[in-house]
Amino acid sequence: MVADAAAQPNKLRWGELEEDDGEDLDFLLPPKQVIGPDQNGIKKVIEYKYNEEGNRVKITTTIRIRKLANARLSKRAVERRSWSKFGDAVHEDVGARLTMVSTEEILLERPKAPGSKQEENAPGDLLPKGGAVLMVCRTCGKKGDHWTSRCPYKDLANPADVFVDKPPSEARPTTPGGSKSSSYVPPSMRAGAAERGGADMGRRRHEENSVRVTNLSEDTREPDLLELFRPFGPVSRVYVAVDQKTGYSRGFGFVNFVSREDAERAISKLNGYGYDNLILRVEWAAPRTN
Amino acid sequence: MRPILMKGHERPLTFLKYNRDGDLLFSCAKDHNPTVWFADNGERLGTYRGHNGAVWCCDVSRDSSLLITGSADQSAKLWSVQTGSPLFTFNFESPTRSVDFSVGDKLAVITTDPFMGSSSAIHVKRIAQDPNDQDAESVLVLKGPQGRINRAVWGPLNRTIISAGEDSVIRIWDSETGKLLKESEKEIGHKKAITSLAKSIDGSHFLTGSLDKSAKLWDTRTLTLLKTYATERPVNAVTMSPLLDHVVLGGGQDASSVTTTDHRAGKFEAKFYDKILQEEIGGVKGHFGPINALAFNPDGRSFASGGEDGYVRLHHMDADYFNIKL
User: Which intervals carry biased composition (Basic and acidic residues) (chain A) (predicted)?
Assistant: First the structure.
């Protein structure tokens, strides 16, 4: 609504008007004008009136006329709207709540939205498609063919060799040692248990030249850490503790170097290094005391 | 969008149909009462009481006065849409699976299931102007296809009847002589049972959904395969947008295995595909059972889906749906 005050040229002298104060002067006003509605449904109404101070005011009202959804319905559809209920709908009690509006906002989910594609795969589908890089069998070393637990050669491989030949990896082997009998044998009783020794079976291989890195930012991942430490020398293992629930880093990780000198240099250089807004703390990983 | 949920049925939905003006939505379910709803707000207008078995299919005449339903109680019934009173009952020897009015509403095609030794059949009935003159005489009976005929619809100018069913072959019959005119070829056709068939708004092409996890678009006259839409679940229901080049597929795993798997693995969304590019546009979630029925409002601005969960969900599309670019 637009109101422009006293835009109209005044033929009456305003001095005279003051004398006639209180008199009804509406007859002096131009008549009301209606323009439109045009093809866009815009209708203009121009009115004139006096305000409290006696000034003539032109009021232009712009209205957009829109047809209601109902108006689009055919005559018959409108008629059907008033049909009386029948069948079970006649005795519908108010509490029945047959028709409800969803409390949940449902969107047309686009398939290409980032991240959504992965989630759509059923857990069953994921296995064979898991990606060649991800799937490396730790028993036979085959890439992209099967998981370690499904290795067809797992019973044939010598368990001792598995640990010696392979670069250490953070995940513990899921296959039990190569015992041929089907009954369960605890790890401490298996062949080669003497050198591994029960609880720290998986850890020993991680203790060589192991460097602990703490105060990592929560989106640090293993490749980032590898990139950071590789310049000091060959790295045999990188591990970042990840919270299982949130998927974010828990703020610490371990890096194993092939040689002790490289590890020492890395500690001296990177301890106190600013990484991702945080000051890193790098130190020798203390063997767990137990 | 916030879909409208309609919980009028106690059993899984089987079929949904809009009338021509798009103001009424008819729903059929395995309970015995087809229901009519106002398509704008989802208010229930009435139920059609009289069937004694699951109702598989329905169709409404162009003037929205006459409803025909096909039921597993071995009958098809004509109803007055306004009052819900049954006008006529066609009795058969076996459950009726699909019904469809011809253009002009003078004929109806009704399919019956194989039952107690009798094979499946397609019946053509004459629909009288005045329900009092209605007779049960079949104008034409077509037999031949093995297994259930899940859907039979009229072709252009009522000259043909298109049927599809469990034997995964689409057939085009001459509606005058009953001669088999065309059959879809084995190599290009569906590999498993066809569950649904939907004609385009102009009738020039139609879409079939099958348990072989795909939907196919066919030319109505020549029965040439135009497009194939591949999904990762069996397709139970298909529909086409009359406004945009979109097709909607609904499905999900078998109802019998639903409880044994993750709800996300069930894939109970209604999937939108671009009709021409055959690319997926998006999915509309919500049902917690497979989708058995889909229907697009003739104005193209809303669609309804019916699921094994007994709900009809009425979706009025958001404005941004109409501007989706691939």
Answer: 197-210
